[in-house]
């Protein structure tokens, strides 16, 4: 029974690796796994390989992601979508922001501690384990 449970978990984990390439979920390189709002199987061998799961909205485009120290300015065309740990940053933990490049259209979730980019509008709020703060700590924005 235990062996069957282990094999089932292995199959689910392997299937999650492939679903990580789908439009629903995927992984990007980051220091630690923080997100609890998407299934762990979306990330191959979480934390051990320094990958973290993230979830895409059906209308959200895959975007370039970057990690910068919290004391650095956010480059134009990028928004904060989460927190991370980065070697070499001197501020307290979590000491870095995960950034996503703004797509040309669609919908995405950004952390609530920043302003809405020009040309985008807020359509709601949500809870994101990747963003700092409690409660409704993220904004859902769209570009018409």
Structure description:
With 144 residues, this protein is mainly beta. It folds into two domains: 1-56, no CATH class; 58-144, no CATH class. It has one helix and eight strands, in the order H-E-E-E-E-E-E-E-E. It has one helix spanning 2-19, and strands at 25-29, 51-55, 65-69, 78-84, 96-101, 106-111, 121-126, 138-143. A three-stranded antiparallel beta sheet has the order 3-5-4, with no helix packed on it. A three-stranded antiparallel beta sheet has the order 6-8-7, with no helix packed on it. The radius of gyration is 16 Å and the shape is globular. Residues 1-61 have low confidence and may be disordered.
Tell me briefly what this model is.
This protein is mainly β and 144 residues long. It contains one helix and eight strands; from the N terminus they run H-E-E-E-E-E-E-E-E.
Q: Which strand order do you get reading across the main beta sheet?
A: 3-5-4
- Helical content, roughly? 10-25%
Taking Cα atoms only, what radius of gyration do you get, to the nearest Å?
Answer: 16 Å
Q: How many strand units?
A: 8
Mean pLDDT over the residues: 66
Question: How would you classify the quaternary structure?
Answer: single chain
Q: Helical stretch count?
A: 1
H/E series, N to C?
Answer: HEEEEEEEE
User: Structural class per helix/strand content?
Assistant: mainly beta
- Stretches where pLDDT falls below 50 for ≥5 residues? 1-61
Kindly, what is the distance between the CA atoms of the first and last residues, rounded to a whole number of angstroms?
Answer: 52 Å
Reported for the largest beta sheet, the result is: 3 strands, antiparallel
Count of all domains: 2
Q: Which strand-content bin applies to the residues?
A: 25-35%
Describe the global form: globular
